[in-house]
Design brief:
Elements lengths: L1 H9 L1 H5 L20 E5 L9 E7 L19 E3 L5 E4 L9 E7 L7 E6 L10 E6 L4 E5 L14 E2 L5 E14 L4 E17 L5 E6 L25 E2 L3 E6 L5 E5 L4 E5 L6 E6 L5 E3 L7 E8 L3 E8 L2 E2 L2 E2 L5 E8 L5 E10 L11 E4 L5 E4 L6 E4 L5 E7 L5 E8 L10 E7 L7 E7 L8 E6 L8 E7 L4 E7 L5 E6 L5 E4 L5 E2 L21 H14 L30 H24 L2 H19 L21 H9 L3
Parallel strand pairs: 11-13, 18-24, 30-37
Antiparallel strand pairs: 1-28, 2-3, 2-29, 3-4, 5-6, 6-7, 7-8, 9-10, 10-11, 11-12, 14-15, 15-16, 16-17, 19-20, 20-23, 21-22, 23-24, 25-26, 26-27, 27-28, 30-31, 31-34, 32-33, 32-35, 35-36
Helix pairs in contact: 3-4, 4-5
The chain binds 2-acetamido-2-deoxy-beta-D-glucopyranose (NAG) (6 copies).
The site of one 2-acetamido-2-deoxy-beta-D-glucopyranose (NAG) has 2 residues, from loops.
Organism: Penicillium olsonii
Pfam families: Arylsulfotran_2
InterPro entries: Arylsulfate_ST, ASST-like
Amino acid sequence: MFWGALLLLLSSNAVASRHDADLMSFVTLPEVRALKWEIQHYDRERMAPGYIFVAPYGQISPEHPTQKYQQYQVGPYIYDDSGMLIWAGSPMYDNENTFDFKPVNNIDSKPHLSFVVGWAADHSKKGHGALVSQHYEVEKEVQVINDLHDFNMHEFNILEGGKTALACTYRNARVNLADFGRPTEESWVTVGGFVELDVATSEVLVQWDSLDKIALHESNMFHASDGVATGEPGWDYVHINAVDKNEAGDYLISLRFTNTLYLISGQDGSIIWRLGGAESNFDQDFTFSKQHDAKFVSSNGTHHVISVLNNASDERGNDENTSSGLVIELDTSVNPMTARVIRRINRPDSGLTRLRGSFRPLPNGNYFVGWSERGYSSEHASNGDLLMTARFTSDRYSTYRSFKGEFTGRPVAPPDLVANVYGTDDKDTTTLIHVSWNGATDVVQWKFYAQSYDRGDPVYIGSTNKTDFETMYIADGYMDWVSAQAIDAEGNVMHTSKVMRTEIPSNWISAGWIGATSGPSPDDPSIIAAANDASKLSSGSSASDKGTEFINDSTSNSTGSIASSDHSAAQYADAKEVAKAVYKAYDIIRGIGSLLVFLLVVGVLGGAGYAIWRSVRDRRKRSYQHVPSEEGLPTEEIRLTSTGRE
Ligand SMILES: *[C@@H]1O[C@H](CO)[C@@H](O)[C@H](O)[C@H]1NC(C)=O
Ligand SMILES: *[C@@H]1O[C@H](CO)[C@@H](O)[C@H](O)[C@H]1NC(C)=O
Ligand SMILES: *[C@@H]1O[C@H](CO)[C@@H](O)[C@H](O)[C@H]1NC(C)=O
Ligand SMILES: *[C@@H]1O[C@H](CO)[C@@H](O)[C@H](O)[C@H]1NC(C)=O
Ligand SMILES: *[C@@H]1O[C@H](CO)[C@@H](O)[C@H](O)[C@H]1NC(C)=O
Ligand SMILES: *[C@@H]1O[C@H](CO)[C@@H](O)[C@H](O)[C@H]1NC(C)=O
């Protein structure tokens, strides 16, 4: 991954010329190009709490490895309900397609994530069902049964308690065509089934398929007049696309090409009933077809409530004019059994969902629908009122399903930070800091620190509220060795970035530098911060929290107290002079490479600085125990060394 990122950096000019206004880009995560996600609110107050989970893909079959050195786009992504990116999961599986990405809150007290990872383009990997912690660490990779080509993309349904999970299976078989009145012929068909797997061991606990149980004539895709398939995979005659299980231990499956939902006995695998299609066992006041994502909402011995996305048409015609989410109530205690629609959610744009999709009730009674193509999704109140629609800005991507749910993300990886210095002379240098923390929810603020050398005390240089995935902060002066703390709503430090060197222009003169020297040298952050603070206090400005707030930081007493407030901009400039003198000494030492001389010179110049600045602040005497270990490396290399994730 590190080399991939390096390659990307080197080739970024070529990439930038592509049409890409529909993708986000980040200074801190240059390897990621997340899709822009457009949200239209209709009634925000009534929306359910939570984040939106999508897994954009460009094409269902895996992309060829030659495409791999593009920046990361496809994979699992989390957005908030204003469209802000929360997590770009595309680097996690190296741009592999992922499907059925959702929050999983039925395992223990912690939130988890699950998704299906697709097979590799060269068929070297079959894909798997992934269970990931709220720290974005892989907890389980549930493997495919040996004789299957891949972990089927439709479903990775982790059941209550997290011990077992359901998946769909597609397997090829030769069947006799007697059912089509052609007893002397055989054809290859794709048999649809499901498995219940042990999440810990991938062991198959239950296995069922349509062979000998669902007759060819139930299919609406293949008919008695069709020519036989002489090779694999053959007729995809049932096309299973969803499986769920109720407390009684029976399984609900959706077969798209029979327009039917089936309840399969957990005892003996027999078909308990059919809902929909030509052989429905129910008296029903509605139709559905080409359905997706059938799930139990509730189920007891006699009554079942089921949610399903009714795609309502296929390539050959529309059964209804618009796709819809349906909540269906079944009563199996009466004769005939009845099926009634108790909620219908029509697609807000009255369109038809041409590809895939999902439909789920939310815990607060709202509904969330994934209409799939271009990520089109909508949230509705329990009475059906439209509250929100969303879609990718890009028309090049879709998501198989999309979900909404509550989630708390706490990445183990620290926040990513990049700092750059700009300026035309010593008096106007500013340090531009970008910070992000991929996957973290609930960050409300960033606090920024700089050090005068790698092991120096972090000096607080300012803070700003988090307003987007990536936050920018502009600090006065040339701050080097910069770091940032992510702060939650209670003011707690959630995590701290690595300490990063500040990048400089490759050529100061061509970047507009007109100062006396050939470019600035880093400022001592404690001097700048103190001077800055003094000048801001004296000028009475402090409405914003930027750069004016000093905190009680256990790692540093060097922020100290402000002794006097009648110092201002002139002193700020003086402070920079002192800082520069100290830095120069430091610079000389670097050349000589002698720690002893270094300590001597710093002793002298540092002492002078102390004298001048005693009136401004009490500064803790610093102890230089360590010569920066990354000295001598070009800035770019240092940055990569510190951010490179293998
Ligand atoms: C199942 O649910 C229905 C509807 O809520 C209720 O009328 C019925 O009594 C329940 N049956 C059992 C066996 O709990
Ligand atoms: C579909 O739309 C057409 C034309 O708008 C209308 O005539 C027809 O009744 C509609 N069909 C259904 C099932 O709503
Ligand atoms: C339903 O899905 C099928 C297969 O993806 C698609 O061909 C069809 O157009 C979809 N139906 C509608 C109403 O768009
Ligand atoms: C930062 O967020 C806090 C809490 O939401 C708010 O009170 C404050 O005004 C914000 N500060 C700025 C500069 O927007
Ligand atoms: C700093 O800490 C002291 C003692 O813990 C406390 O009294 C003071 O209010 C704190 N100041 C700020 C700005 O939090
Ligand atoms: C900071 O100063 C206080 C009081 O002067 C002292 O008790 C504390 O140990 C110091 N903390 C550090 C990290 O030096």
